[in-house]
Amino acid sequence: MSALRRNPLMPRLIVLQVMVASAILCNTLFLLGQQAAPLLVDDGLAGDELVIVDQLVSRGAPWPPAQVRAGRDALASIAGVRAASAASGVPMRQTLTLAFELKSADGTMLATTGYVGERLLETFGLRLTRGRDFLDTEYRDIRMADDMHTPIIITEALARALLGDADPVGATLRSSDDKGSYRVVGVVAHLMRYQLSELDDGKAEYSIIIPGILDGMPIASYVLRTAPGNREALRAQVSKVLDQHFSGRLVAGIAPVVADYEHLRDDGLRTRRAAVWLLSTVNAVVATITLIGIASLSGYWIQQRTRQIGIRRALGATRGQILRHFLAENLLLVGVGLALGLLLALGINQWLMQHYELARLPLPYLPAAAVLLLALGQLAVAGPARRAAGLPPASAARSV
Predict the structure, then answer these.
(1) Residues 219 and 246 sit within 8 Å (Cβ to Cβ)
(2) I need a labelling partner for 337 at 20 to 30 A (CA). Which of 65, 79, 90, 281 fits?
(3) pLDDT tens digits, residue range 147-165?
């Protein structure tokens, strides 16, 4: 502390650098985590086997359920199709978005993405972990204008969020207005939402499956499952079937989308991957600049005290004592910078919340950034401190 008071400029510069670096790293690590988390989520699908058929827009009246099922049967008849389902809401496509607000018995309410269709577990390739699939008698035509009372299948993530550790099978969830009710009959391991703007903060798997076909929908969509190596040939066959079955019934100028799921996922998450690379680069640059800055400032400051080091060595101080002195000194400065920087990080996060609707910075990011910067600080000062500790007492005393 005596040495720090006698020459305060260098310590203050180190504290300032650590303060700014910690404020930046806390928020950029948080943003990186938000962007990267959905990329690491298991979407639950047999992705390399799926072909998505979407954007079949009716030119006249909305598609009746019978017409939708007829289209499904026509697509299912293509050679190589293992399973086919009509669906309102298909993976990685937001042509038609179905959102349901579910409320548990204790009042917990969450917004979820709905997949409505028939035989979706088989076609999607989902893994059922609890309960059962829908019964044949549970599939029906659904009108969205009516109050909905239906069995549903939910994901494990949604079950934990709504019901905690309780067994979700058999639980009754209600709509936000208490007019509709949903009875959980099964739980799947994973199923990612197709609302790509709703994948942050652990919400990527808040999905439900509802049995049936929506009545009065202007858009029809299908999911086909085939062998991985057959997808390209299947896409060509799908186009022919669409031309035959829906000829003259589609809106001119809006071409149906026929694509394999992996390409849709790649395109849908492209922006997030770019953000991950950008934020990773920012974090790496900030960490590198901090490391170089602390090493340079500490090295210069230690060099200015070569005489004092020599005197201490001449009085009997060991190399280890000199090394520990500078490591402890640096630890103190980095600690002060961190204390100020973490407060600054929270302030920046509050400002971002108010002006850019950023989520609140989770507290675990603060110790994570602190540990990273403490390690960088000690690594940065280790080299200059070892060189100082290695100076012979006589040569150190003559170097002023």
Answers:
(1) no
(2) 281
(3) 788 999 999 999 999 999 8
Structure tokens at 191: 């199923």
Same domain, 24 and 51: no
Separation CA 221–CA 171 (nearest Å): 30
Q: Are residues 218 and 105 in the same domain?
A: yes
Kindly write down the DSSP assignment for every residue of 230-271, as one continuous string. Answer: GHHHHHHHHHHHHHHHSTTTBPTT-PPEEEEHHHHHHHHTHH
Statement to judge: residues 24 and 101 lie in one domain: no
Per DSSP, 362 falls in state: -
Same domain, 59 and 173: yes
Q: Are 215 and 204 in contact (CB under 8 A)?
A: no
Structure tokens at 153: 């299948």
Give the position of tokens 């006698």: 6
Question: In terms of residue numbers, what domain contains 276?
Answer: 2-39+271-397
Q: Find the DSSP H helices in 155-230.
A: 156-163
pLDDT tens digits, one per residue of 34-62: 899 889 989 999 989 999 999 999 988 89
Strand intervals (E) in the chain:
50-57, 81-88, 99-103, 109-117, 128-131, 141-142, 149-155, 172-175, 181-188, 207-211, 213-214, 219-226, 257-260
- Note whether 234 and 296 are same-domain residues: no
Q: What are phi and psi of 206, to 5 degrees?
A: -80, 75
Task: Provide the whole-model pTM.
Answer: 0.83
For residues 182 and 126, membership in a common domain is answered with yes
Phi, psi angles (nearest 5°) of residue 83? -155, 150
Rounded Cα gap, residues 95 and 91, in angstroms: 10
Using DSSP bridges, classify how beta strands 207-211 and 109-117 pair: parallel, antiparallel or unpaired. Answer: parallel
